[in-house]
From TrEMBL, chains A, B:
The keyword Oxidoreductase applies. InterPro entries: Asp/hSer_DH_NAD-bd, HDH_cat, HDH_CS, NAD(P)-bd_dom_sf. Its EC number is 1.1.1.3. Residues 7-116 form the Aspartate/homoserine dehydrogenase NAD-binding domain. It catalyses: L-homoserine + NADP(+) = L-aspartate 4-semialdehyde + NADPH + H(+). Residues 124-302 form the Homoserine dehydrogenase catalytic domain. It is an enzyme of class 1 (oxidoreductase). It comes from Candidatus Vagococcus giribetii. Belongs to the homoserine dehydrogenase family. GO terms for molecular function: homoserine dehydrogenase activity. This is Homoserine dehydrogenase. Pathway: Amino-acid biosynthesis; L-threonine biosynthesis; L-threonine from L-aspartate: step 3/5; Amino-acid biosynthesis; L-methionine biosynthesis via de novo pathway; L-homoserine from L-aspartate: step 3/3. The keyword NADP applies. Keywords: Amino-acid biosynthesis, Methionine biosynthesis, NADP, Oxidoreductase, Threonine biosynthesis.
């Protein structure tokens, strides 16, 4: 199978490396053209400057899309699918935004659109979610889905450094972008939850269905406070379906020290599904990085060369957040908080606010604006007598 | 696809339940006959008393083998394969003992022989090991592969109970067999490592290539001693390939509290591979139990109905243990131990013996006979200044 790669950054070059060095002649996969954005063209093998040379080349059967962001990734993916080429993408932003359109056009042209690397890096998450779904209704997906934010939190906890110091380090080391918003405000995790929800629930979910709270406000003191209580702060994404309602959120969460999530460090991801007969199934591996991400893309390529059955189109239903989920939050405040809310005091510093009777669309959001830190407190609920 | 089930115990009946209740008419899989050992035949649907009614029924395309032990499982599997029926097995003892023969006969008859449920229960371990191997050389497989021994160790640690008390409880609850040897002497883990080694390393390995040490000697004091040092005792299986030598072992291991293994409780399994480009990839889920194990068998059935390419036969090479691996052990002893071995004392109770210069086939085994507890101490090595 002749393959073209769009984008020769970290991931794109990793795909080329694995195909040439790991597969060798074992598999009939060959990179024949590589396109990159202008002025990033030096020392690229198989380089073509004009994307049309790929789109209009009938000998190219599959295109690996390793660009960032929506444009021009969207246009190139669509053009390739319409020309009857399989597409493998690692680009969560464009996959989350145009999931259904890509599936439809791929189906119309009887080609594969695959996106394993867009969620969980090297973890075979999408593959296993699809497999589990063959027998099980999936009720929940959740986990650590962003390596950068996890690197920041685990380094804060281990090295006793402030959020801003670790973020600066991470930016200097290239682990975090100059504009870190996608990673630390939860947009990246949100995209991964949207993609996973399409697969797990066959559901069309919108960003507004998720309660997304930034992790920018977290302090070293917060990290240490929860550590001393037996918890580690992690930036989790969750999507549950219950009674036809999708309850989803992205937020700092206090995870019991005995949980897999609390013990997932640095750029590792840990993501779990709950199925009817399988119960909880968790996957742990490198959620980012050149070779792990490229590995997932090459696995998609191998699946395309090995699978021979018809491309099916799953129906997708609308499912919205009916606001049925109740939350408990910890709010750090110097101000006084009504006594009925306070469950725990610690040298005038931390307050536990159980809001189990409040639904976030009605009441919680305004309250949150007064706070610096928000933590989902399901784990601590028992301890506080609720 | 018409399916027959051999064995209507916990797992066999689970397979029937999932096919009838979860798949329904979605998938073309139908249970048509069930065979069970004599005098366990009441209230079995589709029951046939004569196995020949299955073997000689050309309308049955696939047989689910959910028996225990080598005989008559071996004979029935061989007969079905030779009649051109796919076979799905959950029986690690027979799969480990006759892996190559089953693969060969399946290949000769161009049918599938699948065995996902034989290792790791509901975890898609075999599937993902095969996938990772398409691009990566696998250097290591390891983890918690036996639910019963893990239930015993985690209950000892959590409830502060002795080994024998927990074992008795487990036997009463049906978690452990009347003769618990397979679980607590490591034979079950060994079978799973042998099967995994065939897949991961394409290697023919023999039980003698593994250092297998029973966990019978473990005491509550041992569990608490390591807990206080920041470790949890787990009964791990490991197989590594380095320089064409297989280094494998089954033994109690002190796992850092921050490891996934230390946080794997009760009947859960946690198993990891290390690949060239993917790095460490870990899988966590229920390693035993009716529905998780049956789930894996039904996933194998679905793969058979969906896969349509030729049955390939992988070559298997001989690979033996050259005894290159060195170990460190902790030996609990009331007797005096030469000073050069002792690295840590604790109220005259525990001694740490670094044996990093000793190779187990030469020196370690005789030494071990004097001891009650053996723990692999790689994790603690740094702490002891080695």
């Amino acid at each position: 199978m002749n393959v073209a790669i769009l984008g020769y950054g970290v991931v794109g070059s990793g795909v080329e490396t694995i195909i040439s060095e790991q597969l060798g002649d074992k598999e009939p996969i060959k990179v024949v053209k590589i396109w990159n954005r202008p002025n990033k063209t030096k020392q690229i093998p198989y380089f073509v400057s004009d994307i049309e040379e790929i789109i209009n080349d009938p000998s190219i059967e599959c295109v690996v899309e390793a660009l960032n962001g929506i444009h021009p990734a969207y246009e190139h993916i669509m053009a390739c699918l319409k020309k009857g080429k399989h597409v493998v993408s690692a680009n969560k932003a464009v996959v989350a935004a145009f999931f259904e359109e890509f599936q439809q056009v791929a189906h119309d042209n009887q080609v594969y659109f695959k996106y394993e690397a867009s969620v969980g890096g090297g973890i075979p998450w999408i593959k296993e979610l699809k497999r589990a779904k063959r027998t099980d209704a999936i009720s929940s997906i959740s986990g650590i889905l962003n390596g950068t934010s996890n690197y920041i939190l685990s380094t804060m906890a281990k090295a006793h450094l402030s959020f801003s110091d670790v973020l600066l380090d991470a930016q200097e080391l290239g682990y975090a972008e100059a504009d870190p918003s996608a990673d630390i405000d939860g947009f990246d995790i949100l995209n991964k939850l949207i993609i996973s929800s399409y697969v797990a629930f066959e559901a069309r979910v919108k960003p507004d269905d998720f309660l997304r709270l930034s992790m920018r406000g977290v302090t070293l003191e917060d990290s240490q406070y929860f550590h001393n209580l037996g918890y580690e702060l992690k930036y989790l994404g969750t999507a549950n379906v219950e009674n036809e309602s999708l309850e989803g959120d992205v937020m700092l969460t206090a995870c019991s020290k005995q949980s897999l999530e609390a013990n997932t460090s640095l750029n590792y991801n840990c993501v779990s599904l709950v199925g009817e007969t399988i119960g909880t199934l968790s996957f742990y591996g490198q959620g980012a990085g050149q070779l792990p991400t490229a590995h997932s893309m090459v696995q998609d390529l191998l699946d395309i060369t090995n699978e021979s059955h018809q491309i099916k189109l799953n129906s997708v239903k609308d499912i919205s957040n009916k606001g049925l989920k109740t939350y408990q939050f910890v709010v750090r405040s110097q101000q006084s908080i009504p006594e009925s809310f306070v469950k725990r005091e610690d040298q005038g510093y931390c307050y536990l606010l159980p809001m189990s009777q409040l639904r976030f669309k009605e009441v919680v959001m305004p309250l949150l604006e007064e706070t610096d830190l928000v933590v989902k407190m399901e784990e601590l609920r028992g301890e506080c007598g609720d």
